[in-house]
Design goal:
It is a single chain. By secondary structure, the protein is of the alpha+beta class. The chain has a domain at 77-238: Alpha-D-Glucose-1,6-Bisphosphate, Chain A, domain 4. Helices cover 26% and strands 27% of the residues. It contains six helices and nine strands, in the order ααββααββββββααβ. Strands 3-4-5-6-7-8-2-1-9 form a nine-stranded mixed sheet, covered by helices on one side. Helix 5 (197-214) crosses helix 6 (224-232). It is globular. It starts with 37 loop residues before the first helix and ends with a strand.
């Protein structure tokens, strides 16, 4: 698998893998963990927390409720940057992410719906921003198809999501203005039975890191392999409904 170039302007890291090697993909059986083991991963995560804090990125633990107090304990306050993985009684899973971004809602909406801009952090192709609009996203590794189920510019975009390695489900982007020049992005991926949820979690985390790197809030120094190790340790919460 070929890694992308570094996404941070001063980074010497390998960067995250391409989309097809991120969302819903498993690493080969002979993948090598970090040389120093989990201690090195924890050190890297702690370093990222300090860097993000210096950029003014807020701690969103309060937004996700008391249940987050037991999630990702080994990684300390970095847990606020990790998504939630929630299981349901019927075998479905829901992945939830929240990011505060230093740009307006309109700017993020443009980066989500404009094909050229979306390709810089997510995946290019066709995504018609209207109800029942075609979703046909393609890169060298993946082909995602679906339909837009909700479009409320510039606040909500929801679409069905189907690819060979991610069962039929729905992805939902919600944007809320915090100030005139900042906003909150909430991403929810509801996946069907059989989804490789840890890989999906690491993939979305990496892609949101690319978005953050473009907006100057994150350097993207953690690779997909690093993130997958962390998401394999993330407890799967259970819906009580």
């Amino acid at each position: 698998m070929q890694p992308l170039p570094p996404v941070g302007p001063d980074s010497n890291e390998a960067g995250v893998f391409q989309y097809g090697q991120v969302l819903g993909s498993s690493l080969p059986g002979d993948r090598q963990p970090m040389a120093q083991g989990s201690e090195t991963l924890i050190a890297l995560l702690t370093e990222r927390v300090e860097e993000l804090a210096s950029m003014g990125v807020g701690d969103r633990t309060k937004d996700t409720g008391a249940h987050r107090s037991t999630v990702m304990q080994p990684y300390g306050c970095m847990s606020s940057m990790f998504g939630r993985i929630v299981g349901t009684p019927v075998g479905h899973h829901r992945l939830e992410f929240t990011r505060d971004l230093p740009v307006s809602v309109d700017r993020v909406w443009q980066m989500l719906t404009d094909p050229a801009e979306r390709a810089t952090w997510l995946i290019g192709g066709v995504l018609e921003p209207r109800v029942n609009g075609v979703v046909d996203l393609v890169d060298d590794h993946h082909h995602v198809t679906g339909r837009v189920t909700q479009c409320d510019p510039p606040h909500v975009l929801a679409l069905t999501w189907s690819s060979t390695d991610a069962p039929l489900g729905e992805v939902r982007f919600e944007l809320t203005a915090l100030t005139d020049d900042t906003c909150r992005l909430r991403l929810v991926h509801s996946a069907g039975p059989g989804a490789r949820v840890q890989s999906l979690g690491a993939g979305w985390h990496a892609l949101l890191g690319r978005l953050g790197a473009l907006l100057g809030t994150q350097s993207g120094s953690l690779t997909f392999a690093d993130l997958l190790l962390a998401y394999e340790d993330l407890p799967i919460e259970q819906d009580r409904v």
